[in-house]
Each structure stands twice: as structure tokens, then as C-alpha cells.
Specification:
By secondary structure, this protein is α+β, with helices and mostly antiparallel strands. The protein has a domain of about 90 residues. Helix content is about 60%, strand content about 15%. The protein has ten helices and five strands. α1 packs antiparallel against α2 and α6 runs antiparallel to α7. The chain is flat and about 115 Å long.
Length: about 475
């Protein structure tokens, strides 16, 4: 590696690592903000959160790489331009293209790294991530008694406390309705005070009640004439044990999520797409054959062999039919028309669903290529633009990076929407963002090679002053 390569790569690697870490952190923060309210109060351990964030961060890698390349390229070549190092490089006979070559090779290598992650690592991480996310979202909130409110989190029981003391486990004026038998409010316990603790790794709840009464109602279901029985008993201490298994985090089998397109590699997505496309063609081909039984009268369009009309019933003359037969024929025709319309509508909807599924799988397959190639596109924008603006740091480069990444995101979402809805071919929709930004990157590269002052404010101010002076001079000479 030559000195110029070491100089440029040394200036690039540091900002790239920092920006990549910051971007991944911001994406993770966005994820936490989205789902934080669904995790609070569920008693989920820190280890589960760490596992979820690990899988989520792996999923964010392919999204963070293009933005990191854009920001770090802008910062690197902005710093080199601001400190006149690019000027020194050019004055020594080294072109701008040669100066940015090592970063370009690094970005090209990131394309393969990103594709490897997208195709091999991300599907496996997504499988674990979405299954764990589902389990965390569906987990019941941890045990939490509130004053003056009936708590029904424990299956089969409704518990109300009037006051909770500062230790968090002592309570006052407790009412417990036992609905485990399914007979309504037939069993009620009222206690002056109580104390609850968990044991067995929080799998069980021990509820000690003091100075209370138990009321039970037994309904007579026999044939004898005895009335219903009511039982009242007093206790000084009573202990109730509740099973808290329903509060534990239950892990769903990951295979239940494996059919989702986010859990598939390129080869698997390609196979599924081809299978769904074949199903679409088969449904189209079988449409006329499936609708043919609804027709009883002669129609030369329906037979596969239009040259042969053998076996078809010709429509008899209306004059030969009675009024009753005409009414029967009319009702039959109306029913057949309704059946044909229902079949055609159902078949059209089914074709729409199948085509939409095929588009979704194909878009997901092509995104693995386009998102990886975006590293090159962002480099072609960031490196020349940094050389043009000659501003380092996180101020101007970060602002410009956000603008272009928003453009990339908008173009990507627009193209994917077109592809999923069938407005445009999937390959055009997924590559739309890269195709739109590639000319911009090549334009900036051309301007940087020519030492353009495209983003230099002094250049525009000077030209405006020259134009204004020339205009004033011409007005004086005319007068």
C-alpha cells in the first residue's frame, strides 16, 4: 500500500467506525421508542433485552452501511480539502480519481460484506428476532396490584385492595373473588389485611390474609327439595397459593415464523417466487375450464376447440316455449349469470392475492442486491461532494448526508410500492433509488475532477456582484 493510500484510508476508517456505530445506535433507539411501551412493566430480564437488541442490531447492519459510507466519505474528503491536503495531492500529479481509489475499493468490499449479511446472517437473525419480539409483546404484565382497582391478571381470580403500604407487599382491606369454578361470585374472601410474596423463581405467589371471612354459596342441582346452601367461616390467618406460570416469558417455536419472507435467503426467495408465479399461470389457465360448467347453451367462445360444436345444446326458438318454460329459463339464466359473476370476482381476487405475494417475495429478493450496491452509490455522492465543499466535521457533511439519505429512502419506498402493486416491474422498482442517485454521484464526481466551485458561496456572490455591476454600467452608458 502506497503512502497516499495509507493517508486516505487512515483518514477514512476512524470516521467510518464512529458513524457506523452511531447510526446503528440511532436505529436501535428508534426501535426501542416504537416498542418500549409494550415492554414496560412485564418484568423482562436484562438478558432478554440484550438478546433482542443483538438480533436487531444485526438486522440494522445492512441499512447502516450505506449511510455510514456517505457520512464518512463526506467527512474524510471534506477534511482533506479543508486542510489543503487534496490540493497538495493534486499538485504532486495525482488525480482525484487515484486519491479516492482506496475508499472506492473499501466500499466495493462492503457491497459483498453487506450482501453476505443480507443473504446469510440477517435471515437467521430475523428468525430469532421476530420470534423473541412476538413472545415479549404477548407476555403478560408482571404482577401489580393497584389501590381501589380489581386486578384480574391471575386466571380465575379477581383481587381488590384498598391500600398498599410502602414495603410493596403489605396491603389493607382485601377482597378476593374466586371464579375458578366458573360459577360466578359464589366464593368470596374478605380480609382486614394481607401480605404477599413470590417464591420458586417468581413462579408462585403466596398471599397471606389476616382477620377475615370466607363466604361460599353452593347451588342445589339434585332432584331433592333442599334449598341452596350458604357457608360463612371466619379465619385469623389464611394462606392462598397462586400459580404465576402465565406471567413467565414463553418461547414460541421459531419454525412457526420461518415461512416469512424476511427469514429467507436469495435462493429460497427465488424458488418461492417461481412457485407462486407458476401458481398464478395455472389459475389463469384453469379459469375458462372452471367457468364452462356454468354455461348450458351454445356459445362458440367457450370450447377449447372452436372448430367443433359437438355436444353443445343449441338454444331452442322462444316461440316453441310456453310462458312457464320461458320464466324457468329466465330464472335459470339469472342464477347462472350470478354464479359466473361470483366465480369471476373470486378468481380475480385470488389472482390479485397470488400476484401480490409473488411481487413481495421478488422485491425482498432484489432488495438484498440493491441495498448492498447502495454502498457504491453513497460513496460516489459522498467522496466527490466532500472534495467540493471542503468542509470537515459533523456540521455540513451530516446535514448533506441526511438530505441524500432521505432522498434515497423516499425513492426506495416509492419504487418498492410500485413493484409490490404491479405498477412497475420488480427489478425497476427495487433499483429505482440507485438509478436516480447514480447520475447525481457521477455529476458530483465530474465537478470534483474539474475543481468546480459548485457549492462555494463566494463563487456565487462574486458572480452576482459582477452581473450587477455590469448591469449598472450598461444602464449608465444608455442614459
Amino acid at each position: 500500500m502506497k503512502k497516499i493510500d495509507r493517508l486516505v484510508m487512515g483518514a477514512f476508517i476512524g470516521p467510518f467506525i464512529v458513524t457506523f456505530s452511531v447510526v446503528v445506535f440511532i436505529l436501535l433507539l428508534q426501535f426501542l421508542i416504537k416498542y418500549l411501551d409494550e415492554f414496560v412493566g412485564k418484568g423482562i430480564g436484562i438478558g432478554v433485552y440484550a438478546e433482542l437488541l443483538l438480533y436487531c442490531s444485526i438486522n440494522m447492519v445492512t441499512t447502516a452501511l450505506p449511510l455510514s459510507v456517505l457520512i464518512s466519505s463526506l467527512i474524510t474528503f471534506g477534511n482533506l480539502g479543508e486542510h489543503h491536503e487534496l490540493t497538495a495531492i493534486k499538485s504532486s500529479g495525482i488525480s482525484l480519481l487515484r486519491a479516492i481509489l482506496p475508499v472506492f475499493m473499501f466500499s466495493a468490499a462492503l457491497v459483498f460484506v453487506s450482501f453476505f449479511f443480507n443473504n446469510i446472517i440477517v435471515p437467521k437473525a430475523n428468525l430469532k428476532f421476530y420470534s423473541l419480539l412476538y413472545d415479549m409483546r404477548t407476555k403478560k404484565a408482571s404482577l401489580n396490584f393497584k389501590e381501589g382497582v380489581f386486578y384480574d391478571g391471575i386466571p380465575g381470580y379477581r383481587i381488590k385492595i384498598a391500600k398498599k403500604y410502602g414495603d410493596g407487599s403489605s396491603v389493607k382491606n382485601v377482597i378476593v373473588y374466586n371464579h375458578a369454578s366458573g360459577k360466578g361470585n359464589s366464593e368470596v374472601i374478605i380480609a382486614d389485611s394481607g401480605h404477599f410474596t413470590t417464591f420458586g423463581h417468581e413462579r408462585f405467589l403466596s398471599f397471606n390474609l389476616f382477620n377475615g371471612n370466607s363466604y361460599s354459596e353452593y347451588t342445589n342441582t339434585g332432584n331433592n327439595s333442599r334449598a341452596d346452601q350458604f357457608v360463612e367461616s371466619h379465619f385469623s390467618t389464611s394462606k392462598m397459593i397462586f400459580n404465576l406460570e402465565s406471567f413467565q416469558l414463553k418461547r414460541t417455536q421459531e419454525q412457526l415464523f420461518s415461512n416469512n419472507r424476511y427469514m429467507k435467503s436469495v435462493s429460497e426467495l427465488g424458488y418461492i417466487t417461481d412457485s407462486v408465479r407458476k401458481e398464478f399461470i395455472l389459475i389463469q389457465a384453469n379459469g375458462p375450464a372452471n367457468i364452462r360448467p356454468y354455461y348450458n347453451y351454445f356459445n362458440p367462445i367457450l370450447p377449447t376447440d372452436t372448430s367443433s360444436k359437438k355436444g353443445l345444446k343449441p338454444l331452442p326458438a322462444l316461440k316453441a316455449l310456453t310462458k312457464e318454460e320461458i320464466a324457468i329459463a329466465r330464472n335459470r339464466a339469472v342464477n347462472q349469470a350470478r354464479s359466473i359473476r361470483a366465480f369471476a370476482t373470486s378468481n380475480k381476487e385470488r389472482l390479485g392475492y397470488v400476484n401480490s405475494d409473488a411481487n413481495l417475495f421478488e422485491v425482498e429478493k432484489l432488495k438484498k442486491y440493491t441495498l448492498s450496491f447502495a454502498c457504491i452509490i453513497m460513496f460516489l455522492i459522498g467522496a466527490p461532494l466532500g472534495a467540493i465543499i471542503k468542509k470537515g466535521g459533523l456540521g455540513v457533511p451530516l446535514l448533506i448526508s441526511i438530505v441524500f439519505f432521505i432522498l434515497f429512502y423516499v425513492f426506495s419506498m416509492t419504487g418498492e410500492k410500485w413493484a409490490k402493486e404491479g405498477i412497475a416491474p420488480a427489478i425497476l422498482g427495487t433499483w429505482f433509488a440507485n438509478l436516480m442517485l447514480l447520475p447525481i454521484g457521477l455529476f458530483f464526481l465530474r465537478q470534483a475532477r474539474n475543481d468546480s466551485r459548485l457549492l462555494d458561496a463566494d463563487y456565487y456572490i462574486t458572480n452576482i456582484k459582477k452581473f450587477w455591476t455590469k448591469k449598472v454600467t450598461n444602464n449608465h452608458s444608455v442614459s
